[in-house]
Amino acid sequence: MRFGSFEWLCRDTPSYTWCNLFYHQLQERGLGATLNLDPPASAPMGINPECGIPKMGSDGSLGNIANIVICAVSFLLVLGLIVMAHRRKAAVGRTELQIFMILYLISLPLQLVTTGALLEQGSTGLTAVTAVHAAVVATLFWSLLANGLIATQIVEDGTLSSLIPVGILSILIFAGTLYVSLDVGFNFTSALQSDPPQDLLSIPLFVLTSIWPAACFAIYFILMTYIVLGVLREIRPMWFYVLSGILFVLSQLAYFLLGKVVCNGTNGKIDGTFIATFLETAAVGVLYLAWKSITEESWDDDPYYPSYS
Fold first, then answer.
1. β-bridge mates for residue 5, sequence order
2. Number of domains, the chain
3. 266 lies in a domain?
4. Would you tell me how many other CB atoms lie within 10 Å of the CB of residue 265?
5. How much is the pTM?
6. Is 88 contained in some domain?
7. Can you tell me the distance from the alpha carbon of 165 to that of 2, in angstroms, rounded to the nearest whole number?
8. For residue 18, is it within any domain?
9. pLDDT tens profile 136-161
10. What does the pLDDT look like over 97-128, one tens digit per residue?
11. Is residue 66 part of a domain?
C-alpha cells in the first residue's frame, strides 16, 4: 500500500466518502470500462467495493437508510447543543465552541448526501458535494484545534484577536481542501491525477482528510489535558475529555472495521456508517459537557475563568 493511496479504503470500507471523487476522476479519464467500474446508475460507493449499498431506488434499495436517519437525529441534537452553549454568556471559549459545533452541524447533511447512496455515482452533483464535504471536515478539525489553543488563553477568547486569525486560517484551509478535492474529482489539472489510475493515489487529499484531522485531534487532547490537570488541577472534567476521545476513536474503528462486517451481514442493506456517526455525535455531546464542566459556577472565583454576570 502506497502512502496516499485510497485503493484499499475504497475496496474494503463501505461508504468511504472520498471514493466519490476518484470514481468521477476515472470516468472523466475514460477508464471506467478498463477498470471494470460498476455502472453509475446502480454503483455503490467505493471503487468496485467488496460490499456496498446500491443507489436508492436501484433494485428496491433504500440507500444508506440507517445513516440517513442517524444524521437527521444528530442534526437536531447538535442544534440543541449550540443553543445551550449560546445561553452560557460568560463561559470561556463559548464563541469558538459554537463555531466548532456549527461546522459539525453543517457536515451532517453533507455526510447524509455523500454517504447516503442518494445520488448517482460519478455524477457532477455528488462529486461537488463530496468536495465541499472534504473542505468542511478539514476546517472542522482546525476549529477543534483552535478551541484548544484559545483555551490556553494565549489571546482573549471571543475577541477579534482570536476570531480573526481563526477565521483567516479557516478560510485558507477550507479553500485549499476544496481546490484539492475538486481537482481530484474533476481533473482540472493533471497534477492530482492518480498514477497509476488503479492506485487511487492523492497524497494531498489523504493528508487533508486523514492525517490532518488525526493530528488536530491529538494536539487538542494534549492541550486540554494540560489545561485541566496542569492549570485547573481538576480531575472530573478530564474524565469527560477522555470519554469524548474514546468515543471518537471508537467511531473511526466502527467506520473502518465494522463497515464491511455489517454490510455483509445485511446483504448490502446497511453498513457500519451509522454506528460511526452515532459515536461521533456522542463524542461532540460529551465534549460539550467537558467544556461546560470547566466553566461551572463553582469555579467563578478562579482567575483563569471570569465570573458569571
1. 201
2. 1
3. no
4. 14
5. 0.93
6. yes
7. 35
8. yes
9. 999 999 999 999 999 888 888 778 88
10. 999 999 999 999 999 999 999 999 999 999 99
11. yes
